[in-house]
Write a structure and sequence with these properties.
Elements: E1 2-5, E2 26-32, E3 36-42, E4 52-58, E5 63-71, E6 74-81, E7 92-98, E8 105-106, E9 109-116, E10 122-127, E11 133-138, E12 143-148, E13 160-163, E14 186-187, E15 193-198, E16 203-211, E17 214-222, E18 229-238, E19 241-248, E20 253-260, E21 267-276, E22 285-288, E23 295-298
């Protein structure tokens, strides 16, 4: 049975998986803040009422697990707070592995090790394409951390901890821009850069990844006040160029950038702002299909709305 780690928070809607054999059952995982990591089976041969079933859950991924990612047979998750105990305000990072003979019920993922996320509000983690680095974003702690990964997938001590600062509050409502809020720390397809959308400061920070112990900030994209950049994803065009799709929470836009990174020096240009939806919708996560031809959006707000016409086509 194939396995897929779905990158979802507790309040998001499940994205449809894409099994290679349309009739093969597929396992995937969901980070449910109130419970832990759910193991879910999807059987496309069943009807809509019976195709999804919970086969187990893991409670050893900290307090309020918020995000999942995977590399090879390892699964990594980040928790919001209370690591390593209730007196701590830091989040935690957890390396997990599927059991060779998984059984139904609790803790069907084996915990390999865990470390501090170095900040309150652990909200996102990502593995570099070569599997040697793990990143973490802490939205309430205004920090980003990077960790080496061993060949066995063990998380090492943080090699870098970056603190983001906000000189003055932004115009975002509901205290959404009163401090720096790094909402994601994602590696680009080349693995040469770490991209951090910061909702609070209306910036996207880009770090050059030269090695696990040599990561420096080289660029930041400054967006209009009240934009609230939240998540990015990439489509690799060739060895030196990628397209970056940037979703912003506060103005509900998707911006498309070209990233050229010859000689380890990123150059960027904005292609267009491709889509708008009026507030108060929340638009947190861009998703590319496996064919990388269509980008879709995964909302945390489950209110049903009629989509607007796009301003331009991508």
């Amino acid at each position: 049975m194939k396995t897929l780690a779905i990158l979802l928070a507790a309040s998001t809607t499940l994205a449809a998986p894409y099994p290679s054999n349309q009739n093969s059952p597929l396992n995937f995982y969901v980070a449910l803040q109130s419970t832990g990591i759910l193991s879910i089976s999807f059987d496309p041969a069943q009807d809509v009422n019976t195709s999804l079933s919970i086969t187990g859950y893991t409670t050893n991924a900290g307090y309020h697990p918020d995000w999942l990612t995977s590399h090879n047979d390892k699964i990594y998750s980040i928790s919001r707070t209370n690591y390593p105990g209730t007196t701590s305000g830091s989040g935690g990072l957890f390396a997990l592995e599927e059991q060779s003979t998984p059984s139904l019920g609790t803790n069907n993922l084996t915990l390999l090790n865990s470390v501090s996320s170095h900040g309150l509000g652990g909200i996102h983690c990502d593995v570099s394409p070569d599997g040697t680095l793990l990143s973490a974003a802490n939205i309430d702690g205004s920090s980003v951390a990077v960790y080496p990964l061993s060949p066995a997938g063990i998380i090492g001590d943080a090699s870098h901890v970056f603190k983001h600062n906000l000189t003055q509050p932004g115009p975002g409502t509901n205290e959404s821009q009163i401090q720096a809020n790094p909402h994601q720390a994602i590696f680009d397809p080349s693995g040469n850069f770490l991209v951090v959308p910061d909702r609070g400061s209306d910036r996207v920070y880009i770090y050059s990844v030269n090695s696990h112990n040599n990561i420096i900030q080289t660029l930041n994209l400054t967006l209009p006040p009240g934009t609230g950049p939240r998540h990015a994803t990439f489509r690799q065009v060739n060895a030196t160029r990628s397209w970056m799709y940037l979703v912003s929470e506060l103005d509900n836009t998707v911006r498309v950038y070209t990233l050229d990174h010859e000689d380890q020096s990123p150059n960027h240009s904005s292609k267009r702002t491709s889509w708008f939806q009026p507030p108060p919708a929340s638009t947190p996560t861009p998703i590319l299909t496996p064919h990388q031809t269509i980008s879709t959006l995964n909302h945390t707000d489950n209110t049903t709305r009629t989509p607007p016409k796009p301003r331009s086509r991508v």
